[in-house]
Design brief:
The protein contains one helix and eight strands; from the N terminus they run αββββββββ. It is α+β, with helices and mostly antiparallel strands and 162 residues long.
Length: 162
């Protein structure tokens, strides 16, 4: 007796379907921890990029309003840097830019209470400013370092601050 293939009965068996789903579940569970670290590293890079952008904006605003002698501050929100920050002109009390929280679990290590730029675009401190941003599961050597020299130039460097 010869069996003919009936096209209306083609497809996968239940055993084949369960086997494929099991293999996909195992692969997904192996990839999840690495993906979580990737997302955390991306949040740190994003926060560092946004902060450096706002520091450059504050420096630019300070030099733009040099004739008025206005000082421009970059200040964290009341709950700290991880909860966001704002760029304000002190004399005019004008908010130039404001950032909301990127990720509440980011750590800002050694960050100042505020950063101020004078009319020359220089940081109003006696020394360079360096602080780290990293995620809670990142080691001290991971994350990003935000650096401001006395001239007011800001940059972000991958890794911990020296």
């Amino acid at each position: 007796m010869v069996r003919r293939h009936d096209p209306s009965q083609s497809g996968f068996t239940l055993v084949e379907l369960v086997t494929v789903i099991s293999v996909l579940a195992i692969l997904a569970s192996l990839a999840a921890p690495g993906f979580a670290r990737l997302l955390e590293a991306q949040r740190v890079r994003s926060a560092a990029f946004d902060l450096v952008s706002d520091l450059l904006l504050a420096r630019s605003e300070a030099t733009k309003h040099a004739a008025a002698g206005e000082v421009v501050h970059v200040s964290p929100s009341d709950d700290g840097w991880a909860a966001g920050w704002s760029v304000t002109q002190v004399n005019g009390d004008r908010v130039v830019s404001q950032r909301n929280a990127i990720s509440a679990d980011l750590l800002f290590i050694g960050a100042p209470t505020a950063i101020a730029f004078d009319r020359d675009g220089r940081v109003v401190t006696d020394s360079d400013i360096r602080f780290s941003i990293r995620g809670p599961s990142q080691a001290e050597t991971e994350g990003s370092c935000i650096e401001l020299d006395a001239t007011g130039r800001a940059r972000s460097v991958k890794g911990s601050c020296p």
